[in-house]
Protein 1
Amino acid sequence: MYYIGYDLGSSFVKIALLDYKKNKQVTLIKEPTSEMEIISLKDDWAEQDPKLWWKYICNGTKKIINKTKINKDLIKAVGISYQMHGLVLLDDKKELLRNSIIWCDSRAVDIGNKAKKEIEVENLREKLLNAPGNFTVSKLKWVMENEPELYKKVKYFMLPGDYIAYKLTGEISTTINGLSEAILWDFKSNSCADWLLDYFGIDKNFIPRVVKNFEEQGRINKKASEESGLPFNIPLKYRAGDQPNNAFSLNVLNPGEIAATAGTSGVLFSLTDSLKTNEISRINHFAHVNYTKKSTIVGKLLCINGTGIQYKWLREITNEKEYYKMNKILNDVPIGCEGLINFPFGNGAERIFNNKIIGSHFINLNFNRHSKAHLYRSAIEGIAFSFAYGIELMNEDQSLIEVIRAGNDNLFQSKVFAETLSSIIGKNIQIYNTNGAIGAARASTIEADDFDYFKKSNTINDLVIEYEPKKNNDEYILAYENWKKELNKKLKFN
């Protein structure tokens, strides 16, 4: 038997096939072959066409079946992971009304800031655990205010994963995770935050039915089967945003454990069972995949928009074809890059700075001393320092941090990145051979709410390497402190 998992990112759709008997990934396919386009019609806007998401899922599914030469009828279920916080709008005929406004789009920042000022802070802190910020509900309000004729046609709004679930099954639904991502889950009442919809003037009927993460959420219909190559009538059994799903993939299920990613953006997802916080903007809080009314496991999410996207930009402008070559070149540069400092914040408003737009910068660049190797290491250090800065915020918000787990991809393939972060924060970093797509496939094997099985059987991933903090970390700390001094100067001018 086989299970298939989709991980819809903003750069690629990753598709993994799981051999259930061996509990191992058979193969992984990425679509398209080059990164997906992010449409930016104005500064700090970011959109994608959901029809292309579906196209890549269909193309990739057919490729993975053809590549492995399996009998497709042995595929028994589907799981979905997806980029969080995006907005997808359909009309009464269930047709798309516009491109999706995706997670890194900053156009609704002012709407979220206005809501934060006008809504009682205790409601935000105790009920939402967040400010509306630049999340899905604020994006929907932006459409209402700026595209009123289009808004009149809206019948359904959903997150990217909800759209893929609809394309697979023909059914429209969402999850508690999804509502919490949209900042529409009231953690105090354990229900949809209708009062926030009333504040924004949004029709409550827009909210689709809510399904659980781990249950049959619909079955692959005839059209989806024909377009994708999936067997007809197999169940869709799992759906979660990419960060909760990444945590699941890494067996991050308990308070004190952190899942980290460093792809296009960088994310720390730290688990807690407390519904108390002093941070409602710089750190955000979302229901985890094992959140229930009895077991309120919440992920404290800290996002840095400009991480891997900056490293990709550097690779392109220096005409370097492979990341591993960049990682090899930078090894010859000393810690601290001989004074060169980088801020990787050039991908829109950053939540850790209360949605300020800081921008990406290289500081102290010396044309006689610094080479492209210095640029590479400075970028890697700047991203690692940003993660460390975020962990300081989490510590201030009373987060318990025991271990960090990450997949063996993106920036965590760089030894310098992992060693720098580990040495500054004083915690081990474990690198596992897993990914979001295989996590989604594994999740689709689990029966609804069977969390004991969930905890025992989820991760049989090989530990690739574990980084321990350097005993002599003085140079790392000095470089980090110099970085923070320059950051504080920059923040004063913004």
Protein 2
Amino acid sequence: MTPTQFMEAYQRCRREGEQYCKSKGFNCCFLRPWYVLGPGHWWPALLLPLYAAAELIPGLRAKTRAFALVTIRQMIVALYAAIEQDPLPLRIVEIKNIRQNRI
């Protein structure tokens, strides 16, 4: 399986899981990182200069932000914050909010 196929499978599985939880009426909080940097998964950090350059190009800015990297620390903080908050019928936490610790 290629990385692209793996990510497509992951996205499909995540989408199906979210749809299932919504269809059951569960109180849900979905964290939606693109890629989490952490032990054994640091190679995408090599792309950070490209991310910075793409942020400067107006036509690429939105896509760059949609595929931004988050650290494992940011994810742990976001997961903890999501657990500590009162349940809502639906909460979706995108990359920007994970990175800025706004859950």
Protein 3
Amino acid sequence: MIPVREGCFCMRSRGWMALLITVVILAGIAIWLARPSSSLDEAVQASAATVRPDAVFLIIVDTLRADRLSCYGYTAHTTPNVDRLASLGVTFTRAQSVASWTRPSVASILTSLYPTQLGLVEQPAPRDQIFEWREKRGQSSHVLLPNIDTMAEIMQRMGFFTGAFVNQPALNHRRSYQQGFREWFYPVTPDTVIQYDPEGEFTAQGWPTVKDADRGDYALVRTFDVWLGQRAQLPKLFAWVHLLTPHVPYRPPPPFAPPPPPEGSDRKLFKSARYDGEVRTIDDMVGKLLDSIDRHVGLERSLIVFTSDHGEEFHDHEMHGHGHSLHREVLHVPLIVAGPSLPPGRSIDAYVRTIDILPTILDLAGGPPTGHEGMEGTTLAKLIAEDGRIRSVYSEAMLYGSTERSLIEGEYKLMYDQQERACRLFDVSADPDERVDLASEQPAHASAMRRNLESLHKRLTEDHRQIRRKYYETANPTEREQELQRERGLEALRALGYIGD
């Protein structure tokens, strides 16, 4: 017996065995790393991926204050259908319009550019027009230049069939808002809706239809239902619905009309009550729109964005209507985004802007990664996922009185009067109704924000010049001469201080 040799043999055997096991383990790891994705990995990847919608719907309700909806905390009445939409998606509680009236606001929603960049800014009043004791401003332009991409044009390039249903004369008699829409419907009487024929003579919607906005809106909602039933089989749909009912003259139909006020009561309060009746009417229409979408396409397959172009003043700051100021009651608008892969019933208490709507839709609808180039807005998809913050909120574009611009940075809001060269500063966290002007108490803060505001406006003005220049480089000689005349006119307005550099 040779114990040592036997012992050496046993040790060698165990060593070889350990080495073999190690090799097998390493080989197994290599094979595992090189393998195709397992079903578990695929499930993880699928859950992380964004589910793309088959249809996208942009619903804009004209003149709708966010604080008159029950999902935004209003208690005088309920808006169950808007609340239903909020329960399906994400509600942004501090969304801000970038303009105080319809044309520039809607143009900014459709392009993700500011009114100054689009040329939709004010100038001195024509023919001394006065409204509610204030000068009514003229406008440098009413149309979008053809070289500016709109939401509908981008969606069409992404393969979506595009349709619009618009009850707003300010938009319906300007062809440029129709860029990119294959079909466009609008009311010509309170009960009659027609389709605009791009090859034919354009018939403008009449302003008298505003007096019966609810009837025109209901007719448009019925037309939308028929259209959606006919188009539902298309692989991709995009529709914009613009309803007018909350706009003056506040004539809600039964059963939403308030009872007549007692003799001698405050007429201002009655106006507000009638406006509430209009909001309840709109809520009924929103319910019908949601039912149509659910019936023909399916809510679970649809991306729905609900917002407004601006709010409405009820003498909150001594004014009535909109276009007079950039206070909270005019700029704070609802914004609800519901769709596949979005968390239901969530609220985000962060400042966002209406110029963020277009990049958000593109992100959620599967647009190209570089689809936001040239846009001022930021996609809210990241905000929903990460609960981030928008750095600042800039608003402009007046219809009456002085030219004002506003800037929100952090919890402070600056309002700057271009004609008076005067600033007002508000701490909107402590003073959300913007009652206490802190400009005299915090002059350094007000001056710093004013410099930021003026720097931004200067850059936006230069952007517009570049956009115009690129367009008129390819325009005919007559158009170029018209552009030169327009530029000379703008220089005169700058010299008078009506518009910035």
